[in-house]
Design brief:
The protein is α+β, with helices and mostly antiparallel strands and 196 residues long. It has a single domain (5-193), classed as Gcn5-related N-acetyltransferase (GNAT) (Aminopeptidase). Helices cover 33% and strands 20% of the residues. A seven-stranded mixed sheet has the order 2-3-4-5-6-1-7, sandwiched between helices. The longest helix has 15 residues, at 127-141. The mean pLDDT is 94.
Length: 196
């Protein structure tokens, strides 16, 4: 599929879906010193070429905010305690390098950020509970939220749609991007973008 960046918004954080975590897994918050766990997941899903590159990115993006990460970054663990997923309930305050991707009028709002599950554990019903944990944290501190992603992540986008996120109009290649996602995902929320 063609790679096109997209932005999604959730205009309010009321009525979030409740999704149970399958047996044998647990969700907890990040603890200082666990940067390598985040890096392992990030490199496993192909966001970074190596765990070292992912670790360098973590330090650049989150290294100055250890307290915030302890409150806002969630880890998904398997039965052995291995970290196999992550999702962050971030606050976009304009201080970070990626702040330029914040939609106009959304500065200071919640941001669902860096959602990833190790490929060996994808397809097991773990994404929705992980996103749910981050969304509940966002709802505690924000009235609305957004996220940025790309067309190639259409499987994850199905989860975001299930959580009430909507495509943000006016972004580059908006119609094309959402037509591609609608065709790939078949999600009913995107019926208006399907070409018959």
């Amino acid at each position: 599929m063609e790679y096109i960046p997209v932005t999604m918004v959730r205009p309010h954080l009321e009525g979030l879906p409740q999704v149970s975590l399958p047996a044998g897994y647990r969700i907890r918050t990040y603890r200082r010193g666990e940067e390598a766990c985040w890096a392992e997941v990030g490199s496993a899903v192909g966001e970074f070429a190596t765990p070292a590159a992912a670790l360098a990115h973590f330090q650049e993006e989150f290294g100055a905010f250890p307290e915030a990460m302890e409150q806002r970054c969630f880890f998904l663990e398997d039965a052995t305690g291995r970290v196999i997923g992550t999702a962050t309930a971030w606050r976009d305050d304009g201080r970070l390098p990626w702040a330029a991707s914040c939609p106009e009028g959304w500065r200071g709002e919640g941001r669902l950020h860096w959602v990833a599950i190790h490929p060996q554990f994808q397809g097991r019903g773990l994404g929705k509970p992980l996103v749910g944990a981050a969304m509940r944290r966002l709802a505690e501190q924000h009235s609305r939220a957004y996220l940025t992603t790309q067309t190639t992540s259409w499987i994850a986008i199905r989860i975001y749609l299930d959580f009430g996120f909507e495509p943000l109009p006016g972004t580059p290649q908006y119609e094309r991007a959402w037509s591609l996602i609608a065709a790939a995902s078949g999600h009913p929320a995107l019926a208006a973008f399907r070409r018959e």
